[in-house]
Amino acid sequence: MTPEEKTLLLGALFHDIGKFEKRGNINCKENHIILSSGFVNRTFNNEMLANIVSNHHEKDLRESILKGKIKGPERVIAEIICEADNLASGERQPDPTVKNQQPLESIFSKVDYGKSNQKLYLQDICELYYNEYKSPESKDAYKLDNLEEKYANWWKKFEKEINNVNKDEFETLYYVLKKYLWCVPSSSYKTRSDVSLFEHSKITAAIAISMFRFMIENFGQDITKFNDFGNRDEYRYQLVLADITGIQNYIYNVGHKGAAKALKGRSFYLNQMLENIAYYFLNKLDLPITNLIYSSGGKFYLFVSNTPKVNLILEELQMNVEQKFLEEYKGALGLIIGKILINGRDLEYNEVGKDHPISEKWDELNSIVEKEKKRKLSNNWSYSLFEPSGPDGELIKCAYTGIPLIEKEVVLEKKTLAEEVKLDEHSPVKFLKHTIDREVFYQVYDGDTLTDDFISKEQFYSQKIGNDLKKNFDSLIYQDVLEGYSVLGLNSFNISKERKYENKLNAKEPRQFLINSLKITELEGDANKGFKFYGGDWRFGDTYEEIVKNKIGIPRLGVLRLDVDNLGKIFKDGFGKHATFGRVVQLSLMLDFFFSHYLNKLKFYSWDPIEGLSNIFNKHNYKVRDLIEIIYSGGDDVFIVGHWSVLPDIAIWINDEFKKFTSYNDNFSISAGISLFDAKYPVYKAAIEAGELEEKAKRNERKNKESNTIKTKNGICFLDDKTPVSWNDFKQIRKWVVKFYKWIEKGLDNQNKENKKISKGLISRLYNIYYEFEEGKYSNWAKWRWRASYSLTRLANQYKDPYDNEIKEFAAELFTSSKTEQELIQLLYIIANWTDLLTRKENK
Which residues contact 125 (CB under 8 A, 6 or more apart)? Predict the structure, then answer.
């Protein structure tokens, strides 16, 4: 990167930093431009940079040009930053009624594709960290009294931290800005802002470097000849989407032995593969981190210039990476790339842009990639794909996947380089690593006995990474060398506890990330430093058999899968005519924060079948982190494995937290499915079944008895694949299950007399009432009512005080369904089955 480009990026990233400083001292006479200029001058000791920053507004720039105060390369860089700043400011809404500064408006308040009249929520200043994060408050409840003081304290922390980092590490500066500016509005004087100052600065930098590269191609290397900066009809930019295909099917393909460890490791490896490929693209395009617009959920977006050079590099990158996938994964995984042209009109917000909001471009790009998935491997098409390839003769295959590894005679004749390896130095689990040419595979030991089982390199990686994750790793290192976990032979990453990176291998632009910690000043060494969010930063055991022992109810595991409903529609139509690039990116990153990081709060909770989830732990309940493991959480979806009994409460908690996180906006909802399985049942099948239940929760209709309307989505499917239920009804179901469980297992006090338990025969009565209802749907619908009344009356008379009133209350609710959206009788099978499983005793 040239010196001019480095100056351009710093200027773009810090051009508005004075807004942050001024908000902590609104009586300061200097405007934010002067404050920004002063900050960069004292921080970087660079007068040229300070002069550029002080002229990033068009009025000031024109005046400085006329007076000869800025010229040559300085003028050109200032012109580009000025235009990039304007293009990145499209979401700002002028509002003369805003007399005092306001906090950042929640981006979720602005989403509406016809489901609600959303109220305004405000985001308070806080750490972007799960234990410190504050959910948005309604405008009516938010107190503005001490906002200036909050900003002043926040600024002091920021200034202290940024003065303690290496100013030559651009990405380190980027992450410090992200840490502090994510909750600072990009504007507040007589305007309303729902895009953070960080996102505004990041997008400004991405546009600026892309515009600069476009002009280099069109005007040559002499940047003083650049002109026509404000031409917004020219397609100077491209939005690029790269999508790794096959992840959902591939992630579950692990062997049963060590599945708990391997599944976690495999998920992490595939997630990191996406990051490594994104960094590989950035390095080859010589672009800064600001141009990686978003990366999660198996895809990443890049903002690049529209030039022949860039297009050629993208074609080469796609062909190269696709070929690597083909060689290593035989088509099971692949990379699809799509791109769409962007001009200034697409980025701005005005009457011209009203018919073509950036959200439509975003949606169109995703459609392009979906179509390209049907042409998978087309860039490496040749008839040789149908010719015999790989090993032949009698083959050794991977014991877990069945993939051919090597000819058997090669191993028998000891033609491979073999060495013993362990998952780590303390692990009793051993493998014999075989290497021949560039091929690597592993032979499995059973104790000290070498077996005839072989596994592929990626299966070994899965177990080793899963083992590393259990050791509560602190940091992750990215480098372009192949030391560590290699990604397609392009680059590698390492999982580490070290806080200091020594570049012993001469890696180019290495990066070191703290995992789920924002204290990047604790990192030392020769790498760019940052933080990375990772959903599920704990492990709960090496085998699933361990998890089902000595827990509540039937010894079964469960898979919970959930994701956000209507996400494509949210991005396409959610902002309506007010869609801007900043808003789309802000929304993407906040959603990913919730799933990639915020859900880690679960590890601090406890659980029992009566009280549910709690922040308080005592000897009578279980730690959630010992009951569940987040296998994957990011983008907009979650995959959790754990003891079945806790998963319904986990699903309820996630839904409740998501509602709060998204400012109680009815346009956002979640659908979920939970499947149960035995510890010896293949987890990939359970995952597929949970996915099918999730789809039924989204697709299957349920009737609301009050409004007489049919609804889909925004619900969960559990224990009855024919009856998805709303989250409200699921909570009501749980209340009855808790009551019945308590009656059977604990009993109820009768005015200090002997505690009296109720028989499990209660469950049989519930099943029978439901089956009568099911049978009556096709013959005599009313019969179940009088039979249920008779059965429950007998039960009440049998147990009397204290159960008679409780049972009568249930009967009344069963007949009137005053608290549920569906008729309670339709949900009775779930209640009976859930209670049955919680109270069932089996040999464990």
Answer: 103, 150, 151, 154, 183, 184
Burial state string for 367-385 with b = 16 or more CB within 10 A and e = fewer than 16: eebeebeeebbebbeeeee
Per-residue pLDDT of 175-185, as tens digits, reads 999 999 999 99
Hey, what amino acid is at 620? H
Name the strand (E) or helix (H) holding 303. strand 299-305
Q: Is the pLDDT of residue 353 over 50?
A: no
Three-state SS at 485: strand
What's the CA gap between 207 and 197, in Å, rounded?
15
Packed helices 72-87 and 197-219: angle between N→C axes, nearest 10 degrees: 130
Q: What span, in angstroms and rounded, lies between the C-alpha atoms of 602 and 496?
A: 24
Residues with Cβ within 8 Å of 544's Cβ and at least 6 positions away in sequence, in order, are 259, 260, 557, 641, 679, 683
Kindly report the number of other CB atoms within 10 A of residue 820's CB atom.
Answer: 23
The two tokens of residue 39 are: 């900050």
User: How many helices (DSSP H) and strands (DSSP E) are in the chain?
Assistant: 26, 33
User: Sign (positive/negative) of CA torsion 104, 107, 113, 117?
Assistant: negative
**What is the pairing mode between strands 524-525 and 500-501?**
parallel
The per-residue pLDDT for range 237-268, each reduced to its tens digit, is 999 999 999 887 787 777 666 677 788 888 89
pTM metric for this prediction: 0.93
* pLDDT of 469 above 70: yes
Tell which wins on pLDDT, 792 or 401: 792
d(CA 239, CA 341) in angstroms, rounded, equals: 7
pLDDT above 50: residue 214: yes
At 148, which amino acid appears? E
Contact 254, 684 (CB under 8 A): yes
Say which DSSP state 827 is in. G
Summary mean pLDDT of the chain: 89
AA identity, residue 842:
E
Per-residue pLDDT tens digits for 107-154: 999 899 887 777 899 999 999 999 999 999 999 999 888 999 999 999
- Provide DSSP, 560-620: EEEEETTHHHHHHHTTGGG--HHHHHHHHHHHHHHHHTGGGGGGG-EEETTTEEES---TT
Burial of 605 (0-12, 13-18, 19+ CB in 10 A): buried
Distances (CA, A) of 746 to 237, 383, 831: 67, 70, 18
Give the Cα separation of 227 and 736 in Å (integer).
Answer: 72
Find the largest Cα–Cα distance for the chain. 98
From first CA to last CA, the distance across the chain in angstroms is 63
Look at strands 299-305 and 292-296 and give their pairing: antiparallel
The pLDDT of residue 751: 59
Tens of pLDDT along 585-607?
A: 999 999 999 999 999 999 999 99
CA 450/CA 453 separation, integer angstroms: 8
C-beta of residue 113 within 8 angstroms of C-beta of residue 573: yes
In this prediction, residue 658 carries a pLDDT of: 97
DSSP annotation of 172 reads: H
- pLDDT attached to residue 349: 64
Which of 111, 28, 101 has the alpha carbon at shortest distance from 579?
Answer: 111
- What lies within 8 Å, CB to CB, of 320 at 6+ separation is none
- Smallest Cα–Cα separation from 32: which of 204, 261, 186, 207? 186
Give the position of tokens 């003028």: 75
Q: How many CB atoms lie within 10 A of CB 728?
A: 14
- Residue 435 tokens read as 């290497």
Could you report the per-residue pLDDT of 494-507, keeping only the tens digit for each? 998 889 999 998 99
pLDDT single digits (tens) 10-47: 999 999 999 999 999 888 888 999 999 999 999 999 99
C-alpha 678/C-alpha 548 separation (Å) is 9
User: Any idea what DSSP says for residue 6?
Assistant: H
What is the structure's pLDDT at 769?
A: 94
